[in-house]
Design goal:
Blueprint: E1 2-7, H1 11-23, E2 26-31, H2 34-43, E3 48-52, H3 60-70, E4 76-80, H4 85-93, E5 98-101, H5 106-124, E6 127-128, H6 147-159, E7 166-169, H7 176-185, E8 194-198, H8 204-212, H9 229-232, E9 237-241, H10 248-260, E10 262-264, E11 271-273, E12 277-282, H11 286-291, H12 297-303, E13 306-309, H13 320-335, E14 341-342, H14 344-352, H15 358-372, H16 401-415, H17 420-427, H18 431-441
Parallel strand pairs: 1-2, 1-3, 3-4, 4-5, 7-12, 7-13, 8-9, 9-12
Antiparallel strand pairs: 6-14, 10-11
Helix pairs in contact: 2-3, 10-12, 13-15, 16-17, 17-18
């Protein structure tokens, strides 16, 4: 039999709840102060706790913290006469599964009990997100064992120790910067700088200054000399994301650097040489941009000495469980929120969703779900994934071609003031044909 614990200093409320929960099939324990409530919650095998806020010896928030510290998976419902925003926020923040105000609505309580029962049922078939007590977690690693990802790893290994320019191509969210970091930090230049820059985030003149630096007085606001990313990345790697967005002038300067390994600061005359590996990334087809005259062909060939195609998440769905495990541990370390079980229903959703935003969307969805999950079970509804089934668009009115044609002719006749010659011209039909349609459809034409 399921067991519930009621912690409330009001005898009448304890009795009311006890009778109600007994009718619902619970074996009920009661406590009249917070300290005794914590003792029973931790000492007994209870399935649910109804916890008042204002209690003698130990208030509800303190009791909630102690219970969740020792039994984080135990569902606790906070009940309080102080049914305001701040109390509700604090209760949920500290781990309560729900917050109910007094006087207590028993129907609302039953809804919460049903939710708790559903969570318990989901947890029975849940998949532990970690295979071990302490997950192995390393920041800035690429997760995946699929065939397509193994091909990416092999290419990374082949280019990591070289200065060859690498072009990363893939949809948004596929992890292009992660791959760039893997190339840098797994090679012999790992102890030198890795500098990323998103080219589309800056205006062309600002981007030029960021890349090549500028001399004092080169333009309004240039109050002192500034080193650019090419100088700052000396000996290391410069990662240029969204390379397709750079202007023709910067394309030319970048081409010159790749050919000569030298450049001048904006407003300067001194030639500066630097040894930097260039990794670029784009979600666009550069070959198409070249054919359309929007990207230099000679620069394109300089950038794509080695090209790595990053697979979409929908193309490597077998990696989703590994990614889920990785991100949940990352979220736990960053946010202090823990999820221990993933119901089969939740994992089915994760596997079947097309993930148009790829790995980045998966991480954000899990982060949101962890924040919204009221327990250590990752509930499917907290994922809030958009339906992958296209919604059918039904017309407001379903009419035949003949009905639509009749209405169209009536509208044109009305527009022309029932001048048939002009109406026939607009309809692009002869006047005899118009007269035949008027008779056929029974259109009334006022006499002039």
């Amino acid at each position: 039999m399921k067991k519930a614990l009621i912690v409330d200093d009001d005898r009448a409320i304890r009795r009311t709840l006890e009778l109600h929960l007994t009718e619902e099939g619970f074996d009920v324990l009661t406590a009249e102060d917070g300290q005794r409530g914590v003792e029973l919650a931790l000492g007994e095998s209870v399935d649910m706790v109804l916890l008042d806020l204002r209690l003698p010896k130990l208030d509800g928030f303190e009791a909630l913290q102690q219970i969740k510290q020792k039994k984080p998976a135990l569902p606790v419902v906070m009940i309080t006469a102080y049914d305001d925003m701040h109390t509700a926020i604090e209760a949920i923040r500290l781990g309560a599964i729900d917050h109910l105000g007094k006087p207590l609505d028993l129907d609302q309580l039953d809804e919460v009990i049903t939710k708790i029962s559903e969570m318990a049922s989901l947890a029975v078939n849940g998949i532990p997100f970690c295979d071990t007590t302490e997950c192995t977690f390393q920041p800035n690693v690429i997760v995946g064992r699929s065939k397509s990802m193994k091909a990416v790893y092999k290419t990374i290994g082949a280019v990591a120790d070289t200065r060859a320019s690498v072009l990363l191509h893939g949809e948004s969210g596929t992890g292009k910067e992660m791959v760039a970091r893997a190339i840098h930090f797994n090679g012999q230049y790992r102890n030198h700088p890795f500098i990323p820059l998103v080219c589309s985030s800056l205006a062309p003149n600002v981007l030029e200054s960021e890349l090549f630096g500028h001399e004092k007085g080169a333009f309004t606001g240039a109050i002192k000399q500034k080193m650019g990313k090419f100088e700052l990345a000396q000996g290391g790697t410069l990662f240029l994301d969204e390379i397709s967005e750079i202007s023709p002038d910067i394309q030319l300067k970048l081409l010159r650097f790749l050919q000569e390994r030298e450049f001048e600061r904006v407003g300067g005359n001194d030639t500066i040489k630097t040894d930097v590996r260039i990794i670029t990334a784009t979600n666009k087809d550069l070959a198409t941009l070249v054919s359309e005259g929007e990207f230099r062909q000679d620069l394109y060939y300089r950038l794509k000495v080695v090209t790595i195609e990053l697979p979409t998440l929908r193309e490597r769905q077998e990696d989703i469980p590994l990614l889920v495990q990785y991100f949940l541990e990352k979220i736990r370390r960053e946010m202090g929120r823990s999820v221990e079980l993933i119901p089969e229903e939740t994992m089915t959703q994760l596997r079947s969703y097309p993930w148009p935003g790829n790995v980045r969307e998966l991480e954000n969805a899990l982060r949101r779900a962890v924040l919204l999950s009221p327990s250590d079970v990752l509930l499917p509804e907290t994922l809030q994934l958009e339906s992958s089934t296209p919604q059918k668009r039904l017309p407001l009115l379903i009419k035949s071609i003949q009905e639509l044609e009749k209405e169209h002719i009536e509208n044109i006749l009305g527009f022309t003031g029932y001048e048939k010659k002009r109406a026939a011209q607009i309809l692009d039909i002869s006047r005899p044909t118009l007269n035949a349609r008027i008779r056929s459809y029974g259109i009334e034409v006022p006499e002039k």
